Amino acid sequence: MQVPFDLTSYVRVLKLASTPSWNEFSQIAKIAGAGIVLVGLLGFIIFIFMSFIPS
Question: What digits encode the pLDDT tens for the residues 18-45?
Fold first, then answer.
């Protein structure tokens, strides 16, 4: 492991990184929230479906 080389690559990445604008952040948050709600809804539908199937 080459520590100086690793540190320079980390510094390079941090220099390229920037904070997102509010519009970009809100769009990402909406998409992530919609994905979480969709997966939860799918799990709930499967739970309801499995509850009504007789054992």
Answer: 899 999 999 999 999 999 999 999 999 9
SS3 for 35?
helix
Q: How many Å apart are CA 52 and CA 55, to the nearest integer?
A: 9
Number of domains in the chain: 1
pLDDT digits (tens, 9 = 90+) for 4-23: 677 888 888 888 988 999 99
Would residue 3 count as lying in a domain?
Answer: no
CA distance 19 to 11: 16
Q: Which domain holds residue 30?
A: 22-55
